[in-house]
């Protein structure tokens, strides 16, 4: 639906009008709905041939457009009627609908079960009878054969029901009593438009507290700089260190954009549920109504572990009541489920069956009619249980009426999940602001979405279930072939092309059969159903995109399709939105991140503003990534005569040159780096060239690495580099040591036993739960002296408890990805698209490895007054190709070539960082 709230107009198809509903709606049956659609097409063709034979003048698939006026709104409807028959007595409109129920059936039952079909037919009749009527044509006038007062022949409308299995047909004529279906849809559409109009008025009067009542040094100009950068280029890369308060900055910016009317809604997406909960808490604090106890209240918890006094986040006295912003936190569908097991089959779930008819009396519309109503998951589940309606349907119904949607990346970037957002009534990506937090995770997350795996054991389990439920033999036979193919696979780095063709052919055949064969999904169970649906989903992906994938076999009987680069899918999706901000602490190097997100066609180079230029404008470092396509040099003077003539054959005027320059600037993301003066001098870095931590040579340096760790602990214990006592977090004598792998960490722990047997070492456990991880860190800081962490794990990337509590750290080598078939394939793909060998190695290995280093070090200093002494323990850190990938705060430091250099670095006392 397209609508203009100022003009009070809306345009939608007749099908969309007839099926429009603000409550739960049928999803269409997923892949199982395809076979019904195929049967419908078959019977449409049969009836078309019959009508042509009986009445040769019959017209088919006739476009119809007309306007309806209702309660001050103008609705423009467009559609195609299946058949139209003209005669002297009038016009007969005929719509054909395929149903699975036996026919003939009682007419009252058909009207009760398929009201949208009658509403659709009535809409066609209304706009055909009076295509520009000031008042919609009454259905009571439809079906009469006598002409009206103007001599216009009346319209007769027929609905032909066809039984899908047999082709039996039953025809019902539209009657005056059917007007109710048409009127209900008019009221629904207008109610929705009025609610959207109310939402816009709500946003116009939106008031909210600043994210920071007392900004931290460097935050004073962030909002102004972000807004100015966004106005120049609505595709912004926002890089700010951990602890800066990106959540609050982004939310304050988004609310300001919504209030000015630049966007209808904002989407705030993160890759972790904990981050989503943090966004909800921050929004609640920024928009909560003031209370008697509001003085000194924390308005936002922008960083749960950044210790800041209440005075920095306190609200102001005598502030006006904040207009609430309508916020919905979208949780996974499985989290909504209140059944004993999660398996959505509408006909076999008491909370889903006939949910559309039970919704109007449920009272659940309160979740979107009342912006102040609680929207937490427990409340939604309890309301759904009481009303006997699926809680997820509450989320689906309410989402369209909320201003800020908070959720996971998948709701925008995953083909199987994005329908929840993109199919919402009134959703327009061009009028939506997209905020992506922890954006450095986006390329790998989206690549995972487009990767699939199949195993022979799972295939045989599905075959057993198919034999038990006994669907059509053609599907069972095809599945037998699939099982045989998987069972014969042996480990191989790349599937031979002949085998890949066989696999593609079988997947295509299975996708057609799964979509065309009616299956008893309830009997099959959730595991089997998901494994079946995975195949049509994959086939659709393969046909819809040409993302590079590696077909390979990691183990016997296993086929993996690994997406090597999802940049094209990411870039296409990002450019659908009217505005995008990608935020992270580790976007550096910008060219690598932009390329991984499909925002450049070639390696990007950041145009860094000089300090004098920044002082003339803003104290915040604004850097824009200026990307030049390979075919268009920045200066014509760099071309030789032959290239110049070739270029001028393509570009024949200054206007064309200007157009290309403007297009290039419009496609290039802008980069905004946060100004953080409190980090100046907070890191004391040393580059240790005494060891080589490459896989081939690291074992020769185990003793040096172990003794270095012991020396770091001794330095931390003497307190010469302790965090000032005025800091909110006291440092300990612990040392954090980051390794590229568990195996490496285990080897060094063994070496420490002989060199420093009394040193207590804790190695991070292999757990994914963030609460368990945080508990381990807190316990280890008390009971151990050295913490061994693995680069790239959630411990190194997500645990913020180290900030201000660990003064000494050590990174044992760059965490380059493991050399395996996938990485080799990515290297080959990068070379195939034109990158040199060094550039390909940089993109595939060096950038991911050094990004992990930047992420780990960024969590050691998260607030003013904190500082850290860090040893980068490998000679590779001194190589320009690695050193240039370090964040700016870590690029300068002492060079350690000998044991004496290391001792001197430990012994020196560094100046305290500037106090703020």
Describe what you observe in this structure.
The structure is a single chain. The chain folds into 5 domains: 2-198, Lambda Exonuclease, Chain A, CATH 3.90.320; 215-325 and 403-447 and 567-627 and 668-675, Rossmann fold; 332-399, no CATH class; 451-565, Fumarase C, Chain B, domain 1; 680-907, Rossmann fold (3-Layer(aba) Sandwich), CATH 3.40.50. Residues 28-32, 132-148, 292-322, 602-636 and 725-730 have low confidence and may be disordered. A hairpin with a 5-residue loop joins strand 6 (155-163) and strand 7 (169-173). The protein starts with a strand and ends in a 9-residue tail after the last helix. With 916 residues, it is of the alpha/beta class. It is globular and about 105 Å long. The longest helix is centred in the first third of the chain and has 26 residues, at 179-204. The chain is 42% helix and 17% strand. The strands form 4 sheets. It has a 9-stranded mixed sheet. Strands 1, 2, 3, 4, 5, 6 and 7 form a 7-stranded mixed sheet that branches. It is built from 35 helices and 26 strands.
The total of helices stands at 35
- Secondary-structure-derived class: alpha/beta
Beta-strand residue fraction: 15-25%
Number of strands: 26
Q: Return the CATH architecture of the largest domain.
A: 3-Layer(aba) Sandwich
- Mean pLDDT level: 83
CATH topology value of the largest domain: Rossmann fold
CATH class of the largest domain: Alpha Beta
Say which CATH homologous superfamily of the largest domain is assigned.
Answer: P-loop containing nucleotide triphosphate hydrolases
- Residue ranges: pLDDT <50 for 5 or more in a row? 28-32, 132-148, 292-322, 602-636, 725-730
- Strand order in the largest sheet: 10-11-9-12-16-8-19-18-17
Question: How far from one another are the termini?
Answer: 52 Å
Shape: globular
Specify the helix fraction band.
Answer: 40-55%
Q: Can you tell me the number of structural domains? A: 5
């Amino acid at each position: 639906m397209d609508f203009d709230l100022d003009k009070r107009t809306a345009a939608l198809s007749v099908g969309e009008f007839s099926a429009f509903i603000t409550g739960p709606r049928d999803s269409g049956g997923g892949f199982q709905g395809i076979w019904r659609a195929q049967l419908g097409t078959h019977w449409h063709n049969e009836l078309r041939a019959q009508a042509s034979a009986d009445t040769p003048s019959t017209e088919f698939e006739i476009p119809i457009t007309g306007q309806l006026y209702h309660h001050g709104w103008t609705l423009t409807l467009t559609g195609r009627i299946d058949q139209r028959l003209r005669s002297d007595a009038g016009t007969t409109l005929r719509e054909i609908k395929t149903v699975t129920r036996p026919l003939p059936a009682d007419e009252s039952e058909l009207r009760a079960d398929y009201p949208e079909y009658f509403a659709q037919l009535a809409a066609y009749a209304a706009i055909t009878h009076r295509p520009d009527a000031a008042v919609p044509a009454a259905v009571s006038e439809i079906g009469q054969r006598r002409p009206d007062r103007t001599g216009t022949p009346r319209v007769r409308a027929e609905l032909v029901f066809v039984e899908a299995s047999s082709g039996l047909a039953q025809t019902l004529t539209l009657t005056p009593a059917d007007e109710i279906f048409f009127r209900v849809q008019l009221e629904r559409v207008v109610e929705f438009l009025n609610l959207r109009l109310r939402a816009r008025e709500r946003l116009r009067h939106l008031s909210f507290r600043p994210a920071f009542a007392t900004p931290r040094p460097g935050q004073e100009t962030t909002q102004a700089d972000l807004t100015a950068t966004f106005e120049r280029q609505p595709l912004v890369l926002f890089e700010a260190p951990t602890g800066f308060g990106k959540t609050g900055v982004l939310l304050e910016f988004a609310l300001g954009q919504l209030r000015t009317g630049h966007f209808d809604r904002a989407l705030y997406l993160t890759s972790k549920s904990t981050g989503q909960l943090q966004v909800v808490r921050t929004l609640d604090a920024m928009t909560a109504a003031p209370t008697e106890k509001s003085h000194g209240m924390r308005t936002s918890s922008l960083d749960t572990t950044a210790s800041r006094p209440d005075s920095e986040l306190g609200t102001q006295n005598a502030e006006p009541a904040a207009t609430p912003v309508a916020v919905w936190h979208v949780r996974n569908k499985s989290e909504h489920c209140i059944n004993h097991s999660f398996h959505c089959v509408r006909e076999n779930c008491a909370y889903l069956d006939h949910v559309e008819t039970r919704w109007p009396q449920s009272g659940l519309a309160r979740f979107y009619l009342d912006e102040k109503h609680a929207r937490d998951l427990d409340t939604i589940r309890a309301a759904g249980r009481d009303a006997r309606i699926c809680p997820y349907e509450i989320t689906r119904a309410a989402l369209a009426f909320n201003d800020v949607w908070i959720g996971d990346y998948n709701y925008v970037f995953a083909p199987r999940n994005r329908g929840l957002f993109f199919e919402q009534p009134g959703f327009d990506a061009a009028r939506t602001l997209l905020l992506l937090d922890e954006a450095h995770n986006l390329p790998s997350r989206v690549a995972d979405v487009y990767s699939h795996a199949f195993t022979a054991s799972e295939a045989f389990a599905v075959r057993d279930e198919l034999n038990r439920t006994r669907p059509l033999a053609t599907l069972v036979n095809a599945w037998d072939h699939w099982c045989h193919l998987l069972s014969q696979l042996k480990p191989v780095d790349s599937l031979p092309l002949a085998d890949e063709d066989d696999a593609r052919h079988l997947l295509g055949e299975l996708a057609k059969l799964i979509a065309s064969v009616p299956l008893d999904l309830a009997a099959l169970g959730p595991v089997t159903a998901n494994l079946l649906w995975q195949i049509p989903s994959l086939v659709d992906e393969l046909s819809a995109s040409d993302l590079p994938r590696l077909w390979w076999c990691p183990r016997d009987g296993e086929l993996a399709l690994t997406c090597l680069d999802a940049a094209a899918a990411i870039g296409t999706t990002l450019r659908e939105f009217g505005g995008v901000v990608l935020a992270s602490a580790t976007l550096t190097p910008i060219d690598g991140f932009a390329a991984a997100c499909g925002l450049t066609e070639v390696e990007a180079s950041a145009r860094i503003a000089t300090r004098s230029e920044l002082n003339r404008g803003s104290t915040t470092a604004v850097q824009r990534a200026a990307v030049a396509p390979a075919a268009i040099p920045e200066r014509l003077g760099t071309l030789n005569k032959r290239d110049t003539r070739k270029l001028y054959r393509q570009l024949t005027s200054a206007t064309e040159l200007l157009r290309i320059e403007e297009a290039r600037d419009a496609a290039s993301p802008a980069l905004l780096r946060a100004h953080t003066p409190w980090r100046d001098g907070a890191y004391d870095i040393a580059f240790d060239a005494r060891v080589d931590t490459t896989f081939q040579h690291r074992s020769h340096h185990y003793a040096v690495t172990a003794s270095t760790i012991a020396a770091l602990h001794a330095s931390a214990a003497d307190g010469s580099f302790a965090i000032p006592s005025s800091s909110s977090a006291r440092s300990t004598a612990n040392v954090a040591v980051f390794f590229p792998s568990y195996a490496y960490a285990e080897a060094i722990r063994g070496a420490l036993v002989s060199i420093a047997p009394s040193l207590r070492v804790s190695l991070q456990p292999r757990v994914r739960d963030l609460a368990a991880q945080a508990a381990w860190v807190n316990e280890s800081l008390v009971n151990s002296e050295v913490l061994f962490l693995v680069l790239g794990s959630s411990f190194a990337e997500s645990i913020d408890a180290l900030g201000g509590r660990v003064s000494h750290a050590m990174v044992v080598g760059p965490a380059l990805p493991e050399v395996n078939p996938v990485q080799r394939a990515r290297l080959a793909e990068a070379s195939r698209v034109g990158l040199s060998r060094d550039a390909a190695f940089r993109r595939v290995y060096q950038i991911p490895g050094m990004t992990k280093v930047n992420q780990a070090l960024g969590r050691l200093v998260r607030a003013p007054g904190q500082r850290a002494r860090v040893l980068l323990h490998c000679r590779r850190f001194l190589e320009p190709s690695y050193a240039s990938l370090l964040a700016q705060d870590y690029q300068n430091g002492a060079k350690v070539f000998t044991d004496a250099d290391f001792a001197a670095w430990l012994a020196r006392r560094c100046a305290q960082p500037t106090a703020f």
